[in-house]
């Protein structure tokens, strides 16, 4: 066989194969696999909690859920436990694209995404799913691809609007940049016609419906914590802090800063010791603390009669957590400036008689592009700090809620590129009974009720004032205790204007009637 003939045969075979695949796609249009959904994340699946909760809720209501996204962080246990959830991992773009400037690499990255996403939605998912749920942002190319696949396979598209993609792009480029204008047109054009639209706030629903004349059903599905989120018990805290011992050892800045402890009897925050009845609320020195308590048994004895359950140490530092993606829409510098002021105020107040401010350990969770820059700045600042330490920590899905439930206070720096979304990190904190100080923006009061479940601040100086107000006389800090108790009353219930419930109850109330019966509640 000649070379030209061989090429002709190969071309014919390829053409027939492509024709057959296209024919199968169109032939099956309208023949769906009922009770099935493809959930398109276009990000790290394990770092997309809302979409993972969607998949779990669909699966628990009898749907087969195909979750399409990138491999990375470990997903929640339900995604690996439930048999009717399939994780469809996309291949990463070629590494060389990371070395090319953004505006040059973007078209090639999008082309790679187009090919890999279409392969999953058209080929690897053999029968057309009843629904395609798309996380937005990112908008490009997901909205257009979801529209294309819905036309080819007859699926119903549900867009879950977390934010607007063009507003996030405007943080990198100027808002009048041609790419931003193009992204806005793209998002409006391909996001307009969907079977249903889900919004995380009423403000987002009102704004996008007015601006882009969105068609289809429009529902507000607020972020809510999953049912297993709760305030951690002393035993859960003790177990977690024992597990985190390598972290305390790795950060040399913490070795002399934290109270002395002996595993498994004590951690920097918990202890199994018996405290005297007249123990003060804070112990002035580590030596005084050691002299005034005893462990229930000696490590040298082979038997013992009594083991005390863990309790919180009165000499522990206040534990504050800030969950961040280390991106430009969360100005970490605001927190650093507030911590500078807090350290100065602690030096002044603790030099006087009367109420004291505690040592403060700030744990910043999450991954993102600006982490290294800010943590390098923290290292320099800590050389002069006496009352504050700040570390960065990544927690797996099973440890994250326990850690939030073990903290004393949360801080949210989310400013929202669109001013229309709400930070899910605050929802998680509330689900774990953790009061929050949150940076103010347009629709934040839909979630944070000032003085009821948290405090709202405008700048670093106001945040520092709130930290002093809440932590004075810690651990018997009356204002912090009052705020925490107020939050406990509304968790897992519907009280007044807070209307608080778990993710499952909220999802079943809003989305379940739609996907099962095609109606809204």
From TrEMBL:
Keyword terms, alphabetized: Endoplasmic reticulum, Glycosyltransferase, Membrane, Transferase, Transmembrane, Transmembrane helix
- Going by the entry's taxonomy, the superkingdom of the source organism is recorded as Eukaryota
Q: What is its EC number?
A: 2.4.1.142
- Principal place of residence: endoplasmic reticulum
Q: What metabolic or biological pathway is this protein involved in?
A: Protein modification; protein glycosylation
- SUPFAM superfamilies xrefs: UDP-Glycosyltransferase/glycogen phosphorylase
Q: Which Pfam families match?
A: Glyco_trans_1_4, Glyco_trans_4_4
MF-aspect GO terms: chitobiosyldiphosphodolichol beta-mannosyltransferase activity
Per the record, what is one GO cellular component?
Answer: endoplasmic reticulum membrane
The places in or outside the cell where this protein is found are: Endoplasmic reticulum membrane
**Residue ranges constituting the Glycosyltransferase subfamily 4-like N-terminal domain according to the UniProt record:** 51-213
Its membrane topology is listed as: Single-pass membrane protein
Q: What class of enzyme is it?
A: transferase
Task performed by this protein: Participates in the formation of the lipid-linked precursor oligosaccharide for N-glycosylation. Involved in assembling the dolichol-pyrophosphate-GlcNAc(2)-Man(5) intermediate on the cytoplasmic surface of the ER.
This one is known as Chitobiosyldiphosphodolichol beta-mannosyltransferase
The organism named in the record is: Marasmius oreades
């Amino acid at each position: 066989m000649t070379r030209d003939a061989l090429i002709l045969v190969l071309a014919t075979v390829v053409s027939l194969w492509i024709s057959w695949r296209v024919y199968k796609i169109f032939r099956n249009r309208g023949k769906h696999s009922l009770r099935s959904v493809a959930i398109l994340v276009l990000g790290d699946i394990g770092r997309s909690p809302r979409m993972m909760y969607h998949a779990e809720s669909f699966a628990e209501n009898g749907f087969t859920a195909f979750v399409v996204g990138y491999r990375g962080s470990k997903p929640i246990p339900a995604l690996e436990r439930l048999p009717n959830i399939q994780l469809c991992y996309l291949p990463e773009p070629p590494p060389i694209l990371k070395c090319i400037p953004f505006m040059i690499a973007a078209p090639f990255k999008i082309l790679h995404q187009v090919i890999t996403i279409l392969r999953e939605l058209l080929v690897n998912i053999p029968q057309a799913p009843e629904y395609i749920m798309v996380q937005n942002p990112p908008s490009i190319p997901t909205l257009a691809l979801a529209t294309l696949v819905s036309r080819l396979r007859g699926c119903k598209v549900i867009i879950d609007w977390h934010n607007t993609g063009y507003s996030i792009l405007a943080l990198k480029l100027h808002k009048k940049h041609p790419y931003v204008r193009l992204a806005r047109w793209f998002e409006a054009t391909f996001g307009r016609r969907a079977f249903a639209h889900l919004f995380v706030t009423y403000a987002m629903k009102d704004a996008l419906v007015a601006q882009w004349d969105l068609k289809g059903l429009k529902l507000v599905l607020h972020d809510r914590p999953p049912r297993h989120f709760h305030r951690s018990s002393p035993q859960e805290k003790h177990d977690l802090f024992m597990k985190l011992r390598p972290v305390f050892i790795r950060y040399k800045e913490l070795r002399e800063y934290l109270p002395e402890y002996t595993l498994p009897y004590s951690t920097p925050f918990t202890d199994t010791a018996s405290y005297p009845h007249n123990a003060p609320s804070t112990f002035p020195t580590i030596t005084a603390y050691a002299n005034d308590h005893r462990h229930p048994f000696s490590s040298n004895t082979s038997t013992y009669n009594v083991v005390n359950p863990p309790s919180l140490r009165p000499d522990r530092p206040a534990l504050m957590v800030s969950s961040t993606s280390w991106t430009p829409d969360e100005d970490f510098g605001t927190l650093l400036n507030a911590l500078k002021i807090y350290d100065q105020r602690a030096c002044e107040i603790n030099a006087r008689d009367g109420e004291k401010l505690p040592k403060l350990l700030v744990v910043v969770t999450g991954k993102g592009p600006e982490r290294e820059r800010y943590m390098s700045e923290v290292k320099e600042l800590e050389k002069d700090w006496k009352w504050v330490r700040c570390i960065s920590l990544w927690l797996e899905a099973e440890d994250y809620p326990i850690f939030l439930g073990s903290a004393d206070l949360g801080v949210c720096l989310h400013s929202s590129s669109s001013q229309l979304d709400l930070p899910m990190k605050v929802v998680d904190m509330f689900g774990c009974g953790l009061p929050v100080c949150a940076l103010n923006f347009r629709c934040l009061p839909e979630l944070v009720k000032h003085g009821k479940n948290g405090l709202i601040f405008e700048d670093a100086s106001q945040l520092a004032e709130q930290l002093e107000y809440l932590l004075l006389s810690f651990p018997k800090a009356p204002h912090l205790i009052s705020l925490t108790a107020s939050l406990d009353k509304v968790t897992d219930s519907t009280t007044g204007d807070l209307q608080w419930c778990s993710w499952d109850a909220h999802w079943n109330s809003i989305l379940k009637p739609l996907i099962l019966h095609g109606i809204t509640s």
